[in-house]
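Section 3.1: Structural characterization of target chains.
Under the original work plan, the team committed to producing a structural model for every single-chain target entering the pipeline before any wet-lab resources were allocated. The record below documents one such target. The sequence was received from the expression subgroup and is listed exactly as submitted; it comprises 300 residues.
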Amino acid sequence: MMLSSIRRLSIFSISSFQSSNSLRKFIIMDSSSSSSSANKTSQKLFVLAQQLRLYKPPPPTPFDDDDDADFEEKKLEERVGKVVSQLGFQESVTPVAVVHKERFKPERAAVLICLFEGVHGELRVILTKRSSKLSTHSGEVALPGGKAEVGDVSDSDTATREAKEEIGLDPSLVNVVTCLEPFLSKHLLRVIPVIGILSNKKEFNPTPNVSEVEAVFDVPLEMFLKDENRKSEEREWMGEKYLIHLFDYEMDNKKYLIWGLTAGILIRAASVVYQRPPAFLEQNPKFKLPKVVDKNSTMS
């Protein structure tokens, strides 16, 4: 159960968060709400923000430096700065965080996990469906996001800027509360999931960039911890088996398939928010890296 008791967080001093503009917004909203339902909603989001601001990513998994001896290099495929991949795993389960960090400097990207409260009190996350006219990954589901640009001062800047460009989400409406540990995409792009809270969904009127985005929709976050509407495919890489998770979702008579890197990030985000593991097996391969790790390296 998510945030089973507000009292759990009472041991933390609210004053420790007073320097945060995001949390001050929640306090103001909570005190100014006129109805009991509005107060309840604000309180839930406020407590969620507190919980997530205390989150600390897990330490990297120890690896043997000899584990990377026999990896073949393949050509990097450009994805026009966007973050869509059929394969992606937490960097903490790969040797990159421990081995070769001095010579492995992948390009950085960020995606926005924008959470809001649905009509039934459930947490939902905003997703996009890529335009069917795109030459790569057309029609696939993704989180708003893309590669960092020179003017970005942080991962949250990258994620919120891209969300504004892709779906018209004003960054001032989003309270960024934390970042999850980096993920590595298939082509060794370092992707930072940024979690933000949209306190008033009614203020967001999606305006998709039609050259990139075909549809904007939302799904319940808890879906990514359940076995319902989920299937998996077993793959093998370098003699190690791993699972790709695929989630089916239908909204307004339209069907969506969420899988690959996007599904992996949302499984992790749901685990952090709801503080429990998924009801299904997560199986990652034992990664190996080439002796020379550069931008032309790939995980498959």
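The radius of gyration is 19 Å.
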